[in-house]
Amino acid sequence: VVVCQDADGRSNSYCDERVKPAESKSCDSGPCPLWNYSAWGECTQTCGGGRRTRLVVCQRPDGQRLNDYNCDILDKPPDVERCNLQPCPGSASWHRRPWKPCSVSCGRGIKQREISCLLQNQTRIEEAHCSHLPRPRTQKTCRARGCPTWKANRWRECSTTCGPGLQKRDVYCRLKGTGRVREDLCDPHSRLPTIQPCLTSECTPFTWVVADWEHCNATCGEGVRSRKVDCKGPGRTTVHDDYCEPSSRPSSLQLCEEAPCLYMWITAEWSQCSASCGVGFQQRIVSCSARPSSYSTQQFYPPSSFTSKSCPEPQPPATQPCLLRECSHTTYWKVGPWTTCSQ
Q: For the structural domain made of 30-83, what CATH number should be given?
């Protein structure tokens, strides 16, 4: 804007119009940005009316992308339009069958189902006739109950007291909330090891070696079983026990228990010693009887009802030596074996 005014700033009309400065001049800020757009995308439906979209951007001729307000917003081309407006042929629709069971019995799996394109009269036709409709999914993830897993007890003691040996442990299949289940329900490839090498200490030249346990000496009830324990030297030769460490000697006896006894031995009191001095003998009656279910309410069955084979082994002794006192004289009675019964 150019105005004419005097030195005091007041408007003045005496300025020479011929020398008046120009009020405008030309300028060039470069080419104007224009709307640019891509090709239309695919229609969302093949018939019955769908939508398709395209990208519309404001750009300079050199390709620089600008905000939309730099272009004439009224001239912006559309970025969405309707498409495939023709009506769909027939009345076809997708038919969904029920979901099949989960593909796994436990853990995460997949459920599947069949779909087909049908007319109203349930006639199956080509799936292309249903392509104008969203296709239902044919599978989805599913989760069954929790899977059983392998569990293990603590490792047992090493099989040797020195040198390399083996450790064992029990491994079983367990289902949370249920407990122990069949092993075939667990994954065999993830089964935990049941045996591993072990080394308690380096062996000295002499060591204890144990044999397997013998059978229990009782056929029922409580008993004792034994095993052989030897001190072995170089070359696995058996040597005197003094060569091995006595504090580490394994036990050679162990309590054992068989099935409860149905019969039991009944013993009477010992008789008087057969000799008043020196070595003599005592006798008592030993009989086999059925074990009552309650000692307070039932009596033992007569001993003659059962044979000694029904009672647990070993049978209590019926005789034993006795010594009341040493004889003060050199002569004493000497008894021989009993003769055959006269009756």
A: 2.20.100
Contact 150, 192 (CB under 8 A): yes
Tokens in use for 228?
């052989």
Question: The pTM is what?
Answer: 0.29
State how far the Cα of 136 lies from the Cα of 125, in Å rounded to an integer: 16
Domain boundaries, the chain: 30-83, 93-143, 149-203, 204-260, 263-323
Sheet with strand 179-181: strands edge to edge: 149-152, 171-175, 179-181
27-36 long-range contacts, Cβ below 8 Å, gap at least 24? 30/60, 31/60, 31/61, 33/58, 33/59, 33/60, 33/64, 33/66, 33/70, 33/71, 34/58, 34/59, 34/61, 34/71, 35/59, 35/71, 35/72, 35/75, 35/76, 35/77
As a CATH number, domain 204-260 is 2.20.100
pLDDT, one tens digit per residue, over 230-289 is 998 887 889 899 888 898 899 999 998 877 777 888 899 999 999 888 899 999 999 888
Report the 3 state secondary structure along 105-162.
CECEEEEECCEEEECCCCCEECHHHHCCCCCCCCEEEEECECCCEEEECCCCCCCCCC
Q: Are both 149-203 and 204-260 of the same fold?
A: yes
Nearest to 136 by CA among 110, 108, 117, 123: 117
107 CB neighbour count, 10 Å cutoff: 13
Regarding the domain delimited by 149-203, which CATH topology (the fold level of the hierarchy) does it fall under?
TSP-1 type 1 repeat (2.20.100)
